[in-house]
Specification:
By secondary structure, this protein is of the alpha+beta class. It contains 20 helices and 42 strands. The radius of gyration is 28 Å and the shape is globular.
Length: 742
């Protein structure tokens, strides 16, 4: 038999491989990508306009993008093993006040009845400036269990008042939610959408829990219509894989979970980019900047995890966690503001962007033009000094007037002019058109083209720099370990110049224009369970851990892929368990070739800013290599120095999975790992006003890097480490690592 040519064999294998589909709904475009499930290589990417004004809402754009993707890549529906999408539906509904009126049934009994009545009267909730969520309220005393007739009558009265959805909230329902669940069941039996406080949060605090339930209920009508429409289209396309929805904390949930808690999809668009930073770019410690045309979303990643914060609506706290994403109104398409005179100058960049103002980027003009500047006011209320350029083509013998097309210079144009955009970047523009525009404007302003481009990027990146510095400070990041990572179509317009200005390392994502869609395709199933427990026992912690694990298993997570992180907030008496898992285990080591020992040493040394001779292998497992070094750290403005021992954990394919400024590690077998942890804790604990503070502990167990930081004592660490090592072979190597704060 004649052997099939290698290229054809590879093509045949690719055609039969499973596919992961990610769809990201942006402000302007909805992007969709198809990735090979094994190699995670890009198979195809498409974009359509986001359908904000369609009758079906953004769901139409999601469906259009999916159909175009499958058709363009010739992907059979049965090959789709994973499909997920982000959504702007919840965020837009809140910003625009496009939510349902909610009827609140407050409940409480005994001595708490009076305060429960007051706490469940949330009134009008401000969602955004001038946008309010309207509520009606009824209170039922539950000193004695109320009859169904009483609950049913309250529901009917609220519907008569104008309520479209019902929120039930009772004092101490986190301990016993029977009455709340009865209200929800009765409402649903009448065909009315309903939710309850214990369904959205298990934390005490009746007023905040009620507010969260009300906002969740207000989203139900629109979100469920959109979800049902999307799921129907996915099934009609022949795709049988579960439909996943992006959450605001960077994970995904199945559509059944979304139907119960649509509030968790707030800010799921920006969260998609952060998911890509963690899953696709493998950032360990860094700042991720997703740069679009109008704004830049900025977030910190520490020890491979995105930072989480409590959600807020209209300045009021709600019981929902979101990624700590900070948005700045400057990006690749921001317009400059001009002060005329002799010489003239650029005085600001943004927040108005070219595409919002109906102007084109000079960078993407097809030919050089003789452009004349004019100052415009894009919209009422905007300053009247934004730059617009109009003119005629100069590259042909005959002058061609194009009065209907107007342009402007943007950071994308300036970055191209300064040579900061790679040839294969989606932001690469027409150099002749850009040079002609900068030359023309610099003559008008009586300055130099180079200075004009530098001034534009200096002003644009100043707004981003202040946020990056705040994130570094807030998250106690060591600047020497921070990398600026750019994603989004405008990444090259901002990140390279900013990194040079701040003297930080940087890199731009491959396929940066669709990095958020890639993040959606790779996002892990995620669930967070919170409880308020005073002085939690190890059994309390394990119980919460198991509850979080069960939740992601129910949504289809592969048991072998599940990782669980426990946090204990001793001030608020909150235990928080976050479980993440993949629908199928993907060997991301296939993304790169295995690095040699020398290459890994050089990679670790570069990260530590140390010569390779000062870096050595401290420990190794089948999946990870642990490198240590010796570095002199300066304190008190360089007057004092002390030696620290940085640690880098590198996986087989060369991703730095953990960066520790100063640390220690011990190697053991699974049965001895508890002893090793205790030894590290005792050696590196510190004493202060709050008593004994243990170091942050990490564990390398099989293919998992287990984060055991945030715990209070060694027994909690060893208790939570036990499930991670119990199934490993008896002779496996387990590495315990301590991060020392000194």
């Amino acid at each position: 038999m004649t052997q099939e040519p290698k290229s054809k064999a590879k093509s045949t294998a690719k055609a039969k491989s499973k596919v992961r589909v990610g769809i990201d709904v942006g402000g302007t475009f909805t992007h969709a990508v198809a990735l090979d499930s094994e190699s995670l290589e890009m198979i195809e990417k498409v974009k359509v306009h986001t359908t904000h004004t369609a009758k079906e809402g953004v769901a139409k754009g999601i469906i259009d993008a999916l159909q175009l993707l499958l058709e363009k890549a010739s992907i059979e529906p049965e090959r789709v093993a994973f499909i997920a999408h982000s959504t702007t539906q919840a965020t837009n509904a809140l910003l625009e006040g496009d939510v349902a009126t909610v009827g609140v049934i407050g409940m409480g009994g005994g001595l708490n009845a009076f305060m429960s009545n007051l706490s469940t009267q949330v009134g009008k909730i401000e969602l955004a400036p001038g946008k309010f969520l309207k509520t009606f309220h009824r209170f039922i005393d539950t000193t004695h269990s109320p009859k169904d007739e009483i609950l049913s009558a309250a529901i009917d009265e609220l519907v008569k008042d104008g309520a479209v959805a019902i929120a039930a909230s009772e004092a101490f329902a986190v301990d016993n939610a029977d009455n709340e669940k009865r209200v929800v069941e009765l409402a649903r039996s009448k065909g009315i959408l309903a939710t309850c406080g214990s369904e959205v949060s298990q934390l005490y605090g009746l007023k905040v829990r009620t507010r969260t339930a009300v906002i969740n209920a207000s989203m139900l009508p629109r979100m469920l219509d959109s979800a049902n429409m999307t799921e129907k289209s996915v099934r009609e396309a022949g795709i049988k894989a579960p439909l996943m929805i992006m959450r605001s904390d960077g994970g995904v949930m199945d559509i059944a979970a979304m139907r119960e808690r649509p509030i968790l999809t707030m800010l799921s668009g920006p969260a998609a980019g952060v998911a890509a930073a963690m899953m696709y770019l493998h950032i360990s410690d860094g700042i991720f900047l997703e740069v679009g045309g109008t704004s830049t979303d900025i977030s910190a990643i520490v020890n491979g995890k995105a930072r989480i914060k409590s959600g807020e609506i209209g300045g009021h706290r709600i019981y929902t966690n979101t990624l700590d994403i900070r948005t700045v109104g400057v990006a690749g398409g921001s317009m400059p503001r001009i002060k005329t005179g002799s010489p003239g100058e650029i005085i600001d960049v943004g927040p108005r962007s070219a595409h919002i103002a109906g102007l084109k980027y000079v960078a993407f003009a097809s030919e050089a033009m003789d452009l004349k500047s004019e100052l415009i006011q894009p919209f009422e209320g905007d300053p009247k000094d934004y730059l617009a350029l109009a003119g005629s083509a100069t590259t042909t013998g005959e002058v061609k007037q194009e009065p209907s097309t107007r342009y402007t210079l943007t950071p994308t144009c300036a970055s191209n002019f300064l040579g900061l955009v790679a040839d294969d970047d989606s932001a690469k523009g027409n150099s002749e058109a850009i040079s002609a525009a900068f030359d023309g404007l610099s003559k008008e302003l009586k300055t130099e083209p180079q200075k004009l481009a530098n001034d534009m990027l200096t002003l644009a990146t100043a707004k981003v720099e202040s946020v990056v510095l705040a994130l570094i400070k807030d998250n106690k990041l060591d600047p020497s370990m921070v990398t600026l990572v750019g994603g989004g179509g405008g990444a090259a317009a901002i990140v390279p110049f900013l990194a040079e200005k701040m003297k930080l390392n940087h890199k731009l994502s491959q396929h940066s224009d669709v990095v958020s869609a890639i993040g959606v395709a790779l996002a892990l199933i995620r669930e967070t369970v919170e409880r308020q427990v005073v002085n939690p026992t190890n059994d309390d912690i394990l119980k919460l851990r198991d509850e979080a694990q069960t939740a992601v298993l129910k949504m289809g997570a592969d048991p072998a892929s599940i990782e669980i992180h426990i946090e204990i907030d001793s001030r608020a008496n909150i235990i928080r368990a976050t479980a993440c898992g993949a629908t199928s285990v993907t060997d991301t080591d296939k993304l790169k070739k295995d690095l040699s020992d020398e290459e890994k040493v050089n990679l670790a040394a570069e990260s530590m800013h140390a010569p390779p001779t000062d870096v050595s292998l401290k420990a190794g497992t089948d999946h990870f290599s642990v490198y240590g070094g010796k570095v002199m750290a300066k304190k008190f403005f360089g007057l004092l120095q002390n030696e620290i021992n940085p640690i880098r954990v590198i996986d087989r394919s060369g991703n730095i999975r953990l960066q520790i400024r100063d640390g220690d590690c011990l190697v053991s077998t699974p049965s001895e790992s508890g002893r090793a942890i205790n030894q590290l804790v005792e050696a590196h604990s510190q004493w202060g006003d709050a008593g004994k503070v243990i170091p942050s502990i990490f564990l390398l167990a099989g293919p998992k890097l287990v984060d055991l930081s945030g715990l209070m004592d060694a027994s909690q660490v060893t208790t939570l480490s036990a499930p991670e090592v119990e199934k490993l072979p008896a002779d496996a190597k387990v590495v315990a690592i301590a991060s020392i704060d000194r």
